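**Paired protein data**
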Amino acid sequence: MVSILRLPIVKAQTGASRSTIYLRIQQGLWPKPVRLGPRSVGWPAGEVAAINAARISGKSDEEIRALVVDLEAARKLAGVRLAGECHA
């Protein structure tokens, strides 16, 4: 089971403000949120942990952008895999 973290938790875990998180999304330095409902979003806990670990280890912005691309691709692949299992 994947935990989805809402913005207050993400802010607490990253030390970043809402505006900084959304700026990083625009810059490709943070994964896009997952839509949970018409007015709510969140981020998979593993993605938040991966970005935090990359920052802590001193990865460059380009390395973090590549990580974000990989995380979002893995998210899509997992969604396709789950959809296939539901129809099988």
User: Anything to note?
Assistant: The CA atoms of residues 7 and 74 lie 21 Å apart.
